[in-house]
Inverse folding.
C-alpha cells in the first residue's frame, strides 16, 4: 500500500505526455553493426594437408565469387552440393574439382549470402583458390571471428551462444563438449531471456501504475504480484550464482595439486592418471624437486595435475626450494569470485541481483522503476542486446580466422 501513496508524485515528476520506450525484442538493443558491405573469405577448416578443405565466403559478392570460379555455370540450388571445376578467373587455369554450395541470405550461418568451396586439402590447391577469390572484386580476407561476428550482428546468435560456440571449438573433453553444446543450443541465453521477460513485465506494471494510478481500473493486486515474481527471480539468481564456479572450472579445467610426504606415491599416481611417464619414480626420497604439470582427462573432466616435492624439511637447498614451491601450489581454492562460464556472466547477474535489492528498498515507484531498468539492462548485456564494442572485440578475438 505504501507505493500507492507515491504514485501521484511520481507521475507528476514524469511530466505530462511523457512515455516510456517500448520493450526491446531479442535484438532490440544490439550494438554490433552489421557488415559494411564487404564480402569476406577464409579457409574454415584446419591448416595443413587434409582430404578436404572448406573455404567459404560471406557477403553480397558471394554469388559473384561462386560464378567467377565455377564459370560459366549458374549458381547451384540453395543448400545443395554440386561438383564443379574451379578455374582462376584471371588466367582461366584449372584449380581443382570441388563441391560447391550456395546459401542465399538470410538463411545462412551469418544471415548474408554465403558460398562454400569444398576443395582437396593440399596446400597448393588451397592457396590457389584463396588467391583466386582475392582477385574477385569486392572480396577481402576475413579477420579472426568475423564470420561469427556477422552472425551475431544479424541476430543469428546471441552473445551467450557465441561464447558457447567458442567453447565448443576449444573443447578437449566430453564434459566440456556437452557444456559448450548446451550453451550453443541457447539454454543459458533462453534462461536469461526468461529472466528479462520477468523484469520487463514487472517494469511495465510499475510504470502503468505510475501513469494511471488506482483511478483507472487497474487490476487489483498488481504490485503485490510484481513483488512475488521478483522475489522468485532473486532466489533463482542467487541459486545460479552459488553454482557458478562449476561451469567455469569445467570450461577452464581444474588445477589439482598432488601433495604429501615423500615416497607416498604422488608421482606414481600422476603417471597413472596421465597414462605416461611424466614423473620419475624412485624409492629415494626427494626425487621430485620441481613442480611437474600435465593435462589429463578425468572421465571427461579436464584437469591440470601438478606433481610436487614431498612435504618435509628438505635436506638441501634444491629440495627445500621444491618443498617451498609445493606449498605455494596447495593455495586456497575458495579465493576469487564465483564464476559462470565467463566472468562477465557473474558480473551482470550480480548487477541484476543488486538492482533488485534497490527495487525492494526504493522509497517511491519512480525509483523502483529505475532499479528495474538497471536490472533489465544487466540481463540484456548477458545475451549481447546491450553489449559495447569493447566487450565484443574481446570475445570475438578468441575465434580463429574462418570462424
Amino acid at each position: 500500500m505504501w507505493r500507492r501513496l507515491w504514485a501521484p508524485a511520481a507521475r507528476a515528476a514524469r511530466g505530462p505526455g511523457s512515455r516510456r520506450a517500448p520493450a526491446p525484442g531479442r535484438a532490440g538493443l544490439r550494438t554490433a553493426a552489421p557488415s559494411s558491405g564487404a564480402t569476406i573469405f577464409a579457409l574454415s577448416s584446419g591448416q595443413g594437408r587434409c582430404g578436404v578443405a572448406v573455404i567459404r565466403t560471406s557477403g553480397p559478392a558471394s554469388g559473384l565469387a561462386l560464378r567467377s570460379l565455377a564459370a560459366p555455370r549458374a549458381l547451384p540450388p540453395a543448400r545443395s552440393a554440386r561438383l564443379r571445376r574451379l578455374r582462376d578467373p584471371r588466367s582461366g587455369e584449372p584449380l581443382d574439382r570441388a563441391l560447391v554450395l550456395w546459401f542465399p541470405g538470410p538463411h545462412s550461418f551469418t544471415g548474408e549470402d554465403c558460398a562454400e568451396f569444398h576443395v582437396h586439402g593440399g596446400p597448393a590447391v588451397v592457396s590457389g583458390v584463396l588467391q583466386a577469390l582475392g582477385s574477385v572484386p569486392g572480396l577481402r580476407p576475413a579477420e579472426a571471428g568475423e564470420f561469427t561476428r556477422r552472425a551475431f550482428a544479424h541476430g543469428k546468435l546471441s552473445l551467450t551462444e557465441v561464447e558457447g560456440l567458442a567453447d565448443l571449438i576449444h573443447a578437449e573433453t566430453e564434459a566440456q563438449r556437452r557444456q559448450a553444446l548446451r550453451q550453443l543450443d541457447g539454454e543459458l541465453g533462453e534462461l536469461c531471456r526468461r529472466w528479462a521477460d520477468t523484469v520487463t513485465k514487472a517494469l511495465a506494471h510499475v510504470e502503468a501504475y505510475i501513469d494511471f494510478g488506482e483511478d483507472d481500473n487497474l487490476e487489483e493486486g498488481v504490485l503485490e504480484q510484481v513483488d512475488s515474481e521478483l522475489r522468485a527471480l532473486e532466489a533463482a539468481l542467487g541459486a545460479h550464482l552459488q553454482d557458478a564456479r562449476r561451469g567455469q572450472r569445467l570450461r577452464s579445467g581444474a588445477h589439482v595439486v598432488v601433495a604429501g610426504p615423500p615416497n607416498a606415491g604422488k608421482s606414481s599416481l600422476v603417471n597413472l592418471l596421465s597414462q605416461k611417464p611424466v614423473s620419475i619414480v624412485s624409492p629415494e626420497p626427494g626425487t621430485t624437486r620441481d613442480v611437474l604439470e600435465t593435462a589429463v582427462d578425468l572421465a571427461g573432466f579436464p584437469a591440470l595435475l601438478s606433481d610436487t616435492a614431498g612435504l618435509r624439511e628438505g635436506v638441501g637447498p634444491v629440495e627445500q626450494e621444491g618443498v617451498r614451491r609445493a606449498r605455494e601450489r596447495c593455495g586456497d581454492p575458495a579465493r576469487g569470485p564465483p564464476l559462470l562460464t565467463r566472468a562477465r556472466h557473474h558480473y551482470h547477474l550480480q548487477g541484476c541481483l543488486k538492482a533488485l535489492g534497490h527495487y525492494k528498498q526504493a522509497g517511491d515507484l519512480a525509483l523502483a522503476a529505475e532499479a528495474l531498468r538497471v536490472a533489465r539492462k544487466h540481463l540484456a548485456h548477458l545475451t549481447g542486446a546491450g553489449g559495447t564494442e569493447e566487450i565484443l572485440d574481446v570475445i570475438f578475438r578468441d575465434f580463429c580466422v574462418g570462424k
